[in-house]
Design brief:
With 136 residues, this protein is mostly beta strands. It has one helix at 23-34; strands at residues 2-9, 12-18, 20-21, 43-47, 63-68, 70-74, 82-90, 95-103, 111-122, 127-135. It has one helix and ten strands. The chain is globular and about 45 Å long. The N and C termini lie close together (5 Å).
């Protein structure tokens, strides 16, 4: 399984990164596959921590926003093998964004993955749109 995130600030691509699927995400995926859970990944969080991603992390280091995602499927190698997660963040204050992750809930959700995105500076009125691709 692999993931890639594309981040746009006001329509311009500012980051394109691979990501780390964390242990809690792997466990939740296994539960979805065998029917032990029906809770899927429908939220995307963004934050300001530059802590190196680790498979044992369960949350972002310093989350500043989380939004519901729009999810769909696409084809990369075989039909419908790629999950697409799309979200837009609107800001009313300034941040130097550095991290992003997918979650099952807006509060206390299970984290699927996390990546560092470099530094994406935002301020009031700036929108950040994200497309996250996870190829199974």
């Amino acid at each position: 399984m692999e993931g890639r995130v594309i981040i746009k600030r006001n329509g311009e691509v500012v980051a394109e990164k691979e990501n780390l699927i964390v242990n809690s995400g792997v466990e939740q995926l296994a539960k979805l596959i065998n029917g032990e859970s029906t809770i899927s990944f429908n939220y995307m969080g963004i934050g300001t921590s530059a802590t190196t991603p680790s498979s044992t992390q369960t949350s972002l280091g310093s989350q500043v926003a989380i939004v519901k995602t729009t999810n769909s499927l696409a084809t990369t190698r075989v039909s419908n093998d790629t999950c697409l997660f799309q979200a837009t963040f609107s800001f009313s204050t300034s941040y130097a964004l550095t991290e992003i992750g997918l979650f099952t809930s807006s509060t206390s959700g299970i984290m699927l993955n996390r990546t560092l995105i470099g530094t994406v500076n935002v301020s009031s009125g700036i929108d950040v749109s994200v497309l996250w691709q996870v190829v199974v």
